[in-house]
Amino acid sequence: MYRIGQGYDVHRLVEDRELWICGIKLPHSHGLLGHSDADVAIHALCDAILGALALRDIGYHFPDTDPKYKGADSKLLLAEVCRLIREKGWEIGNVDITIMAEAPKFKPHIEDMRECLANVMNVRTDCVSVKATTTEGLGFTGRREGIAANAVALLYEP
User: Which one of 28, 31, 32, 105 has the minimum C-beta count within 10 Å?
Assistant: First the structure.
């Protein structure tokens, strides 16, 4: 049996924050605002994996009202989501993430991002797709006010 989940997340860009995307710290003048490290791509990915099994969303499992998640490394949240789905008898087949932002340029970092996520999820790198696109100057991402990410995950019962 197979299950598919979809996730979406958005975070505002602000000064004086580090920019973490797909578990990789990127050089940039702004970072994403959030309770944790605000890794928008990992948050969308967690929602996709959780959604595939109808396990609600990342906010349900890791609420921003809980002080233990203040500044949390999103890679740890993803590892916990993977532990949860494996505990229920499922494995990750593949994941596909699209990041929407005008800057920074993601191309030089895509392979590191794929490897990082694959290591956290304990899957082969060829099971992880990361893509980035601009919105051609349109909307909040086009105005460089924030970054959005969309993710899809395929789960299977071994």
Answer: 105
